[in-house]
Amino acid sequence: MKNEPFILRDLFFKHVAQTSSLPLGLEIREAKGVYLYSADGRKFLDLISGVSVSNLGHGNKEVAEAVKRQIDKYAHIMVYGEMIESPQVEHASLLASILPPSLNSVYYVNSGSEANEGAVKLAKRVTGRREVLSCNNCYHGSSQGCLSLMSSEEFKRPFRPLLPMIGHIRFNSTEDLCLITDKTACVIIEPVQGEGGVQIPKPGYLAALRKKCDETGAFLIYDEVQTGFGRTGKMFAFEKYDGVVPDILTLAKALGGGMPMGAFVASGELMKAWQSDPPLGHITTFGGHPVCCAAALASLRYMLAHKKELVDDAERKSALFVDGLKDHPLVKEIRAAGLLIAVDLHDCDKAKKILYLLLDEGVITDWFLFQPTSFRIAPPLIISDSEIVYAVKKIREALDKLA
Predict the structure, then answer these.
(1) What is the reported pTM?
(2) Fewest beta carbons within 10 Å, which of 48, 236, 278, 325?
């Protein structure tokens, strides 16, 4: 069709619900490695990985072949938890094998929001308590329960009433740990705050949080939706920061190898709570979809087989970005947890403008919900040194235009 791109663009804005008044509006025809290719022939270096989803890059052959094999066998056959499906069982077994012994039972859902909803429900069900604490500037999803966990009234006000008995503590504040009491069902926290602008935990903070939760009987939930699967230079961020093991771990984004998938992981003993009082205490139709699990299994196998160059090398690659940008006069601070990086300009207007300057140069970056003075760098873990050098060059050129 002669004017197909224009027709498709019109239909996009007419029939696909928009989440902002200024979507990127790029029509992507193909994605390979660390690049996206648009319908009009442009090539874009992807520095956000679909917001930490495409850790293995785009078009990983093993993942694609696993999806094709599984779809030829069966797709959906029954609601989650009723039938033995090999992709679920094999993936859950492999995932449990790389986690601490107390995290040995996986409940599959469809997204990070659902994973966090399930984790909080489980904590309330087992403890019999109702108070939930989260952090200022946290982001755990957009469903009503997860929205309740946000500290931002700007986001919450139009949707009230929300869940009651939600409290907030300051990330990295040991003083606020006194707010955790024997009335607290759980504390849900990102070990590295993502939308807060890559806020790194101070040494000892997460250990102190773990100790306080143990003293009060509150569950500790780690939201590793963004930080899981090599993003921070470890398979999971909890391995990197104080070595604290949570009671419940939530996962999504990179979990599915590019397919939509979430999960929360706890002990088998805790998960038994779903079976009675009431039975079916948490149910889902498409959670653990066999095609998604096949992709997740292939993705995890690939990452473990290539751990040295993907996970273990993330910190070195991160340093190439940091060292290449830190001396630019507009860069005031860089916060990095492996290949999750916030470049802070201490200027909201400049941080917004640089996204569009880079887009014009074929580089896709992003912003942070609760840190508007920073822009995000979170490329696929497969990014090469030469691609990092190129990215740094383009970013510096864009910064020069803002100076």
Answers:
(1) 0.96
(2) 278
